[in-house]
Amino acid sequence: MQFVRFNSALPTLANNLFGRDLEVPATHHNSLPAVNISESETAYLLELAAPGLNKEDFKLNVQANRLVISAKKEEVKEQEEKTENAVKYTRKEFSFTNFQRAFTLPKNVDISKVEAAYTNGILTVSVPKKEEEKVKSFEIAVA
Q: 0.85 exceeded by the pTM?
């Protein structure tokens, strides 16, 4: 079986139907991971869907009152040492992209206690709330 590469200068039927070039190089994919944000009495919880990464790929920091989550993963070009069982790709679509998301933090959070964990493709960031100062009540004498 022989694979035929279409001339990219000629539009294909799929390109005409969808109105965009489907032969975009993998390095041009720009997408941000989806995020769920929930709030409990004690903390805010961010869940970021980022499958295919390792925990070492993430960088989290707080700048001013913003939580910045970024990740960078580059494709590793492996050298083929075994010539007998070497695989020759006719097409490679796996890509590794970078992303950065920033979240403005409310004033009632304790940034020194932020925790993050990466499990099964989900980055979970817990941002605890500060303990509210209890308002002392007292009686005022009328003079």
A: no
